[in-house]
Amino acid sequence: MNDRRNDTRAPVPRDKTNDHTHDAARMRREFLTARTGLPLDHVGSYSFDPGVTAGNIENFIGAAQVPIGLAGPLRINGEHVSEDVYVPLATTEGTLVASYNRGMRILTEAGGVKTTIHERFMQRAPVFHFNDARGARSFAQWIDGNPDGIRAAAETTSSVAKLSHIERYSVGPMLHLRFNYETGDAAGQNMCGKATLAACEWIAANHPGGARYTLSGAMDTDKKHSQLNVLHSRGARVIAEAWIPSSLLKERAGVDAATLFRARLNSFAGSVMAGSANNGMHAANGLAALFIACGQDAANIAESHTAITFVRLEDDGETYYWSITLPALIVATFGGGTQLPTQGECLDILGCRGKGKVGRFIEICAATVLAGEISLASAVVAGDWVESHDRLGRNR
Question: Where is this region: Disordered (predicted)?
């Protein structure tokens, strides 16, 4: 038997002087080629200077070229965007762009999507440890009495992060604190971690007798769905809603409002039985395609796809009110992957690159999700869902 423990470890090559260069990337590709025999021609084909990836990736070897399609126009009647937009979607799933495009046409012909952002916070949730529950209760009272000192300590770490409020949850001899920050145009997870560390250090130095803590007690739910996010929000809580004439649904999607409404009751029951984080159709599809195209942290889909669909019949069944609430949409228009060349261009298509644009991007994301809900739900009810995938979604 071959004992792999005796194999010599071959570390990935690095250039200690400057590891984000064409030469450094080529060195690693050649290392891989020597070990695998693969030429890596496509991985090594990219149009930007590797220097721009510093801070975004380590051991850079090339780029994943995901196809980008364009859907639209989508009319949005929001508070940050009030116009028709064209939406770039990066995906490898056939029918996705076509489906979202159909939903956008229906929404636009219905007068557009109304979008509303209720709140937007990013969290870090440390847990403080005590000998007993009374110690935790006394500490909670001390926290309530010292908001200014805690806020000042947290905000020394950033010119952007602003501490809004602190939730507290007790369990046994512990107190979980959930710090909520406004983070400007950044998503803010790292920003909030740094700010909360400073706040916890101030608390430990100023609380009588000190305080022992763990910086994350898991109630911040980083990149994990949670019911806490549904109730208290994480990232943006945004709602997209539309009033769609039944006649338009029948003309464009082959199904009327009353039939869609009955189908919604059925799918709602199924979502409850499944314990789904989303009682709608497929918010993750549109959001993932937008995230990849526009330089978002793709892992945030785990939280961002959570959604609550609410519908009703109006005007004696002639109008279908359709809304979707995204309680944990985590996006940015500044920092992170948004500064990369391809991703920056896609944000430019949307008019969303840079500071002061995150509200616009949030509303576009929500409106895009609603377009996808309308198209897929109609396709399922009308019976052309499988046929569409068979026609558009197969490599022939």
Answer: 1-23
